[in-house]
Amino acid sequence: MIARRARNNTKGGTFVKAGFFIYIGISLLAIVWLKAAVVNLEYEIGKLDRLRGDLVSEREMAVVQRANFYSMGNVENVAISRLGMSNPERDNIFFVSRTSAAGPRTASLK
User: Does the residue 21 lie in any domain?
Assistant: First the structure.
């Protein structure tokens, strides 16, 4: 009876051992797959970071160009050359003094 129990344990033991090795193999494959996925994500993050740097420098160039377009000298040149405007003459300049705003008046008989 003792020999029979030992023999049943060895059959069950081989299935347990085989299952254990299969489990270890699948676990190792999963770990390798996850590591490869992390490396691919790191490459993609690096590529996106370089793209972000390029876009930031392009944005800075656009800001500089916009500031150049709106500079007073450039606006004056465009107004004179394209729109046909001219610099004001001394006779055409009028100074307007500021008056108080219209509002209710109080009437008194004093």
Answer: yes
